[in-house]
Amino acid sequence: MKVRRFHSIPSFKQAVSAFAMCAVLAGGAGFLAGYTFPGAALADDTSEGPKKDEAPGNQGGQGQGGQGSQAGQGNQGGDGAGQGGPGDDSDGKGPQAGGPSDDGSGGGKPAWAQEGIPEVELGRLSVARSPDHVLERALDEAVATLTPEMITFYNLPLDGAGGIIDELSNNWDNITIFDSPLQNLALLEELLAGGSTSLTGVTNDSDTLMAVFLGVASDKNVAVSVDTVVAIVTIFGLTISEADAAALAEDAEAVRIAVLAGHG
């Protein structure tokens, strides 16, 4: 039997190889079609960028901390109480301390700071400008320290042998008087304002007592003049006639000279 060679086998192998290749390529294409490359995914994720209205970090930047910090300061709080405006009955001008008042008294100025006080050297008498409470305390101290010997002295007549001027000039070391200018001026102001003294047992006339108080309160080396009297009375916020000022100045000057002679 003659055997024939089958020459188509190589062709069959080639056909199978081609078919297999096509299958591989087809499968690869399908695989590639379903595969997403990392670069493309990254591009998709970053193409639009973050949205500001969706980013929680930006909301944190606009948090309520800023409002809280302002509200926490009491001096800036919305409910804080500041200086109120003028009331319904206010003229809106505010206080004018020291300005002239309606009655011409100088407003808030003390009496000694107003016009009308003569330019005169006062020396120890300058303490007449002390506040009222200081003069009142000095008056209380004088009343509290009054002794029987002092009562006797202040009841003496002003002139004559054995009188006040004589005692001050010739018996200085044996008498007891109020030497403090504050106490003497406080006693003087009381007499000028009310006409009487708080010194229990002292019954001398007010003119004599005022001359003693003013003369003893003065500097030994500074003369007491009418201007001195007017200045002191004005500082006290009081008034005095020219005649009374002249009489008081004359008697007080005699007392001052007596003190200078006796005290040296």
What's the rounded overall pLDDT mean?
Answer: 73
Order of helices and strands: HHHHHHHHHHH
Query: For the terminal residues, how far apart are their CA atoms?
Result: 185 Å
Q: What is the radius of gyration computed over CA atoms, rounded to a whole number of angstroms? A: 56 Å
Uncertain ranges: 1-16, 28-33, 35-105
Residues in helices, as a percent range: 40-55%
Number of strands: 0
| Mass-distribution shape | globular
Largest sheet: none
Return the structural class: mainly alpha
Strand percentage:
under 5%
Could you characterize what this model shows?
The chain is mainly α and 264 residues long. The protein has a domain at 111-263. It is built from eleven helices and no strands. It has helices at 9-34, 38-46, 56-61, 65-71, 132-144, 148-154, 164-170, 181-194, 206-217, 226-235, 242-263. Helix 5 packs across helix 8 (181-194). It is globular, with a radius of gyration of 56 Å. The chain starts with 8 loop residues before the first helix and ends with a helix.
Main attributes of the structure:
single chain; 264 residues; mainly alpha; globular; disordered N terminus
Care to give the gist of this entry?
This protein is mostly helical and about 260 residues long.
Show the helix and strand layout.
Layout: H1 9-34, H2 38-46, H3 56-61, H4 65-71, H5 132-144, H6 148-154, H7 164-170, H8 181-194, H9 206-217, H10 226-235, H11 242-263
